[in-house]
Design brief:
By secondary structure, the chain is α/β, with parallel strands linked by helices. The chain is about 45% helix and about 15% strand. It has 14 helices and twelve strands. A five-stranded parallel β-sheet has the order 2-1-3-4-5, with helices on both faces. Strands 6-7-8-9 form a four-stranded mixed β-sheet. Strands 10-11-12 form a three-stranded mixed β-sheet. The longest helix has 21 residues.
Length: about 325
């Protein structure tokens, strides 16, 4: 028999209404931050830019979770940063902070005991302190060199207790700091890729053509005195849908591709006797091994082709790069 004391499950409409209410409260919390981006925010940015060491972020509980994310975002966007748990800091981890560092301390109340315990030591070291709190009159806010107000009118929690809108506002303020610092430092996509070598952007920006190209015996190529039939056999053996045409010194003269073959067949040429030089594309699109794979993608897309010869400084064929190689590597 069902327990009549248990609350009945909410219907779909009620669940959706709750979600909309939560998002509306958090949207309003973010909107309220806009007028607080003032001279104080700029001072906080300048303190962090002037930091010769690392930006140390600290906070307790949910503020600590948000602080960890802020530290990670700063570190990945050009501002060396790490998170220190305030409870552990008072038991030895405070030694991780040096006089060259700067500290961002997060506490919604501004009175979190674990944070206040290490506050005198941070001040004694003369380390620049930026605080984020929901109470501008709190102990932490007053002790900071710059205070960033992340207060909210209400939490999304119906009891107005669980950190919800307040943590969203704090995270957004941290993102605002990180992006402002990123732009001020002139942080580039290449810089971002260096700290994200395993990600898609890292693959796009760090891989070179030489890392992906077919080389050595894998290169399809024929001499300029070859017939069309010999070129077709070379294309079939190597399976890249093309062959390079080279002179006696192995320098590139042109390229013959599947597309050229279709045009040849339409012209009813004798494949056994026609010289490859009469049907090849002279020159052909090419690239260097040291160029970025992303540049090869741009070149292929621009000219609507799927393969490039890779030439060295003497115009010799060092490799061949196919669009399939770029797809397999996740560059495209």
């Amino acid at each position: 028999m069902a327990d009549s004391t248990l609350p009945s499950p909410a219907d779909d409409a009620a669940l959706q209404d709750t979600a909309r209410r939560v998002l509306g409260i958090e949207r309003d919390a973010l909107s309220a931050l806009l007028p607080r981006i003032d001279a104080g925010f700029a001072r906080a940015c300048r303190l962090l830019i002037g930091c010769r060491g690392r930006v140390v972020v600290t906070g307790m509980g949910k503020s600590g979770h948000i602080g960890g994310k802020i530290a990670a975002t700063l570190a990945s966007t050009g501002t060396p940063s790490f998170f220190v748990h305030p409870g552990e800091a008072s038991h030895g981890d405070l030694g991780m902070i040096t006089r060259d560092d700067a500290v961002i301390a997060i506490s919604n109340s501004g009175e979190t005991s674990e944070v206040l315990t290490i506050l005198p030591l941070i001040k004694r070291m003369g380390v620049p302190l930026v605080s984020m709190t929901g109470r501008p009159g709190s102990t932490l806010a007053k002790a900071a060199d710059v205070h960033l107000d992340v207060s909210v009118d209400q939490e999304a929690c119906p009891l107005n207790l669980a950190p919800t809108a307040s943590t969203t506002a704090t995270l957004a303020m941290g993102d605002a700091l990180a992006v402002a610092l990123l732009e001020a430092r002139g942080f580039t996509p290449e810089d971002f890729a260096l700290s994200h070598p395993g990600g898609t952007l890292g693959r796009r920006l760090l891989l070179k053509v030489g890392d992906l190209m077919h080389s050595g015996a894998q290169i399809p190529k024929v001499r300029s005195d070859a017939t069309l039939s010999a070129a077709l056999l070379e294309m079939t053996r190597k399976g890249l849908g093309m062959t390079a045409v080279v002179d006696a010194d192995d320098r590139a003269l042109g390229i013959f591709t599947d597309g050229d073959l279709r045009r040849v067949l339409d012209a009813n040429l004798d494949v056994r006797t026609s010289p490859i030089t009469s049907v090849m594309t002279p020159g052909g699109r090419n690239i260097r091994a040291e160029q970025l794979a992303a540049e090869a993608v741009h070149l292929m897309e621009r000219h609507r082709i799927t393969v490039l010869m890779v030439l060295d400084d003497d115009n010799r064929v060092a490799g061949v790069l196919h669009m399939h190689d770029l797809l397999r590597a996740g560059v495209v």
